[in-house]
Amino acid sequence: MGNAAATLAISLDQEAAYSGGSLSGRAYLYVKEEIKCTALQLEVFGAEFSHVHWTTQETHGSGENRKTVTKHHHAYARRHLLRVVVTLASFPNGSLPPGSYEFPFSLVLPSGLPSSMYAAGGGGSCKISYSVKSHARSLTSRRAVGRSRQS
After folding, report:
1. What pLDDT was estimated at residue 137?
2. Where is the Arrestin-like N-terminal domain (predicted)?
């Protein structure tokens, strides 16, 4: 945060959200000095991650020259489960003056989403996680002027 021209934060109204339920809260934007900004967006993202580890052994040679080599293998996968982008505010003049701003939001999550989880052991791990991020979008580029994230 330090010398940043703007600071973003997110506060959720509930500790947990459920498939088919509502997700509500507020995005807070503190602008220290005027920023070039066209929109404030909220992104709700969910993904499944998995990692599998296994070993194979190869034996070479015979007798005293016989050697067994163990090789470690890894496989990783990622699958997107959810991505919802909501524009909380638009700034048609392309800039935002100094000040403190609060943007309430509420959206309904799709039904059928799996629960967050994490499991590991026996040569692998998997997790399903969700996060809520806010971005202040710049007029001159697609990069975020400020970001905030809550998982």
Report:
1. 78
2. 10-137
What are the residues facing 48 on neighbouring strands?
A: 79, 128
CA atoms within 13 A on the CB side of 1: 8
Half-sphere exposure of 20 (CA within 13 A, CB side): 3
Q: For residue 99, is it left (φ>0), alpha (ψ between -120 and 50) or beta? A: left
> Distance between CA atoms of 13 and 17, rounded to whole angstroms?
10
Query: What is the reported pTM?
Result: 0.75
Q: What is d(CA 145, CA 147) in angstroms, rounded to the nearest whole number?
A: 7
Which fold would CATH assign to domain 6-150? Answer: Immunoglobulin-like (2.60.40)
Q: pLDDT tens, 12-55?
A: 998 888 899 999 999 999 989 888 889 999 999 999 999 999 99
